[in-house]
Amino acid sequence: MGRSSPGLQAAGHPASLGTSAWAWRRTHPRGGATFPGPAPALCQARSRSRSNSRLDNMAHDRPSCTLEPEHVQRLLLSSREAKKSAYCPYSHFPVGAALLTGNGLIFSGCNVENACYSLGICAERTAIHKAISEGHKDFRAIAISSDLQDDFISPCGACRQVMREFGTDWAVYMTKADGSYVVRTVQELLPASFGPEDLQKMAEQVPQPGRAWVPTRV
Ligand SMILES: [Zn+2]
Fold it and tell me: What are the positions of the active site (predicted)?
């Protein structure tokens, strides 16, 4: 890891950090059994659920931006705590997220639904918007928790795009209910993405009037 690892500080729910009854569990790399223990840097989960089999197969590569194990554990616990506040009377699908900033703060969030369905917001974006509104936009990692037992919770496309707005080289920890997880970079979750740099390219582009547009495969 190229970056220093500042101590984590809670932003929002300090009392919840480290006091969760949720016991950390990880999937044994060889046998598939679960056992209590410290959070691994990268859990090599072996569950072969259909929808997440690609994630499982990719679980061996550790992105350079992943956190130290103790920080991973704390971030995941924060996301688990945040899930308790989820307002999801329509989907009954509670999700929690915990976002780690570059200076070691954790902002948590949950999904918040609405009777006008389209106004609902995901836990990931709640956490990101909270951080932004407090003046933080340098992110190192986000952890996501749900009650899914056989699948790693995965951010929706909208949340991936919002994550990407603030860089592509930071970590997304996706968990199962037992605490096992896979970690990917934002770049891996949203390849060939569109971001602020692309808008800047347009502004810097030299106008070429009269040039015909011809479809060309590159
Ligand atoms: Zn989402």
Answer: 124
122 is in an annotated binding site: yes
The answer to whether residue 143 is domain-embedded is yes
156 is in an annotated binding site: yes
Q: Per the structure, how many domains does the chain have?
A: 1
Please enumerate in sequence order all residues whose Cβ is within 8 A of that of 104, keeping only pairs 6 or more positions apart, or say none: 6, 7, 8, 9
**Looking at residue 135, what is its pLDDT?**
98
- CATH code, domain with 139: 3.40.140.10
Does 116 carry a binding-site annotation?
yes
Span from the CA of 156 to the centroid of ligand 1 (angstroms): 4
pTM: 0.74
Q: Looking at the domain assignment, is residue 184 inside a domain? A: yes
134 is catalytic: no
Containing structural domain, residue 108: 69-191
**Separation between Cα atoms, residue 160 and residue 203, nearest integer Å:** 25
Pair 143, 78: CB distance under 8 Å: yes
User: 77 C-alpha to center of ligand 1: Å?
Assistant: 20
The label of the residue with tokens 């056989």 reads 150
Q: What is the pLDDT of residue 210?
A: 78
Q: 87-101, pLDDT tens digit by residue?
A: 999 999 999 999 999
- Would you say residue 64 lies in a domain? no
Q: Which structure tokens are listed for 59?
A: 């679980």
172 within a domain of the structure (yes/no): yes
> What tens digit of pLDDT does each residue of 142-170 get?
999 999 999 999 999 999 999 999 999 99
